[in-house]
């Protein structure tokens, strides 16, 4: 099965994008309304990236932030974070990092650093370190302890980002494992998530 930007946007992959965007929007709105210090707004991005590839995942993350931005403009610049998650998660899936525990740990570690760094850049340069989210409380604690703004924001994003990555990935992985094999096999990156027993009898 051919993979890449030219081949990943098949019919099944395109059908998944609105599903992923919807999951992201619901998660974001829930966290925003409840002022939670963590975000579960990337479940759709991870899910789509895992089974449809990095470019479809990137597009899902971007569109999710565009929709969220219609209700809360603060979300739009963070589309850069969502796009980076979709891209990296898709490539990790392509190289089967999510098929064994060590690979999952490495992938989640890298994804945490990438998302934390990207989010910190947006937060500091676009919003001066304060966005009105629940994570501001953690940043304020670091600042009160005498840490510099950049250091405080990045540290906050590493701490909360680790939890975010684990939650978003774990939920999306469980959802992927529940997708029927007859649908997964039609996706460019879906086959590795089909159990070996099913493949043998398929």
Description:
This protein is mostly helical and 202 residues long. It has one domain (11-195): Arp2/3 complex 21 kDa subunit ARPC3 (Orthogonal Bundle), CATH 1.10.1760. The chain is built from nine helices and no strands. The chain has helices at residues 11-34, 43-52, 54-71, 79-94, 101-127, 136-144, 149-178, 181-184, 196-201. The chain is globular, with a radius of gyration of 17 Å. The model has no long low-confidence stretch (mean pLDDT 91).
In short:
The protein has a single domain, classed as Arp2/3 complex 21 kDa subunit ARPC3 (Orthogonal Bundle). Helices cover 71% and strands 0% of the residues. The chain is built from 9 helices and no strands.
Architecture, CATH level 2? Answer: Orthogonal Bundle
> Whole-number radius of gyration?
17 Å
Specify the structural class: mainly alpha
CATH class: Mainly Alpha
Described by the principal axes of the CA atoms, the overall outline is globular
The rounded distance between the terminal residues' Cα atoms is 17 Å
Largest sheet entry = none
Strand content: under 5%
Mean pLDDT level: 91
Uncertain spans: none
- SSE ordering: HHHHHHHHH
Number of helical elements: 9
């Amino acid at each position: 099965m051919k993979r890449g930007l030219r081949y990943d946007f098949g019919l099944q992959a395109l059908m998944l994008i609105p599903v992923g965007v919807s999951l992201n929007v619901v998660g974001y709105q829930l966290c925003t309304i409840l002022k939670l210090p963590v975000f579960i707004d990337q479940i759709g991005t991870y899910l789509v990236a895992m089974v449809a590839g990095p470019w479809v995942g990137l597009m899902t993350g971007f569109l999710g932030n565009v929709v969220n931005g219609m209700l809360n403009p603060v979300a739009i610049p963070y589309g850069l974070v969502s796009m980076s998650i979709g891209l990296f998660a898709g490539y990790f899936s392509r190289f089967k990092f999510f098929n064994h525990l060590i690979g999952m740990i490495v992938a989640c570690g890298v994804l945490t650093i990438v998302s934390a760094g990207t989010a910190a850049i947006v937060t500091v340069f676009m919003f001066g370190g304060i966005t009105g989210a629940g994570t501001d409380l953690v940043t304020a604690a670091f600042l009160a302890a005498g840490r510099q703004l950049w250091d405080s924001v990045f540290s906050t994003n590493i701490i909360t980002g680790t939890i975010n990555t684990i939650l978003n990935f774990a939920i999306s992985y469980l959802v992927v494992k529940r997708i029927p094999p007859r649908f997964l096999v039609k996706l460019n990156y879906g086959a590795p998530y089909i159990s070996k027993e099913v493949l043998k009898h398929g």
